[in-house]
Amino acid sequence: MIVEICVDSIDSALIAEKSGAHRIELCSALALGGITPSWGLIEKAVQKLSIGIHVLIRPRGGDFTYSKSEIDLMVADIEMAKTLGVQGIVSGVLHENHTLDIENTTRLIKACEDLPFTFHRAFDWIPNKEEALGQLVDLGAQRILTSGGCTKAIDALETLTTWNRNYNTTILPGGGINSSNYKAFKTAGFEEIHLSATKIIDKGEVEIPMNALKYLIENGHILCDSKEISTICKGG
User: Fold this and answer.
1) In 3D, which of 155, 79, 150, 85 has the Cα closest to residue 121?
2) Is 32 among the domain residues?
3) Where are the alpha helices (DSSP H) in 2-121?
């Protein structure tokens, strides 16, 4: 069974490979659910690792509904990742009502060309998951990263197993998988699993907080306030 580890630093990537991982999903900012890693991080991972590298393409934290300029950026980031020699792309787009955005997801898949495309855990927000599974198969998605609509994949094992048997795509279970429950997925016949296997290196409280926590929002996103900026800039 292929073990894919989600990492957001070069040090974690090296640890994953040394510890026996078969592939990494490379991102930045795991605290935001992962966003597109920098050129430098991708380049160094490709140079230093011998295992497969799939790169997350997500322009920001928050929800999975993106503007045209954000979609354009995602396409550009896929092109960047391809030039650096990665082995796969992980991404996806939803409408405001959390249904699959077929048009923009198709655009991302086409930008991948020969690279395999994994639709990420935005899938778990989709209300009609089985309909979306069929649509993603038709679009050519090679993998679907999902917890089966539950917080933890182990709680949706039966559903995930059914999907894995019935759809012509790889169901990649992810969400709460760890050393105490991974064997259940192997027994159920899954060829791959996804986990982060993180531990917290806590250095204690900081003297001057940077207000990071107020920006942690999932169903929505942060944006510059035009009125606030105009008031300050025109204030002389």
Assistant:
1) 150
2) yes
3) 10-18, 39-48, 68-84, 102-112
Q: Is 82 exposed, middle or buried (0-12, 13-18, 19+ CB in 10 A)?
A: middle
pLDDT value at 232 more than 80: no
The runs of H, that is alpha helices, within the chain are 10-18, 39-48, 68-84, 102-112, 129-139, 157-166, 182-187, 226-233
Asked whether residue 204 is domain-assigned, the answer is no
Name the residue with tokens 């999932």: 218
- Does residue 216 surpass a pLDDT of 80? no
Looking up residue 167, the CATH number of its domain turns out to be 3.20.20.380
Work out how many domains the chain is built from and give that number: 1
Q: Is residue 203 part of a domain?
A: no
Residue 6 resides in a domain: yes
CB atoms within 10 A of CB 108: 23
pTM: 0.91
Domain span at 90: 2-198+209-233
Residue among 71, 72, 58, 130 nearest 99 (CA): 130
Virtual CA dihedral for 101, 103, 108, 113, nearest 10 degrees? 140
User: Could you report the per-residue pLDDT of 40-77, keeping only the tens digit for each?
Assistant: 999 999 999 999 999 999 999 999 999 999 999 999 99
